[in-house]
Amino acid sequence: MQIGANSLLQEMQTLSGEIKPNGLTSGITQQVANTSGSDFGQLLSQAVGSVNSLQANSSSMQTRLDMGDTRVTLSDTVIAREKASVAFEATVQVRNKLVEAYKEIMSMPV
């Protein structure tokens, strides 16, 4: 299966119009849209940093909820945890695709 960077970006932009903007989807799609000429490593680093910040936020909200902070609700905590979980799963899938592509390239005859 061939996936081009431009077709993937167009697909993401199309899907971003169908998704209601929130902290997770709008932030990641803006990062992808703004990095048209930047390095792939930098893009990957930004994406991992975004996932890390979502997980840190989720952990912080969980701790605050456990400590009895009245400003944090259970629903907000669950939503933050699910955002972090979805972002992490997407990162794992991207990693799996990259490893698969690398193996395929390395197995090509020269």
TrEMBL record:
GO terms for cellular component: bacterial-type flagellum basal body. GO terms for molecular function: cytoskeletal motor activity; structural molecule activity. It is found in: Bacterial flagellum basal body. Pfam families: FliE. Belongs to the FliE family. It comes from Shewanella colwelliana. GO terms for biological process: bacterial-type flagellum-dependent cell motility. Keywords: Bacterial flagellum, Cell projection, Cilium, Flagellum. Its main location: other. InterPro entries: FliE (IPR001624). This is Flagellar hook-basal body complex protein FliE.
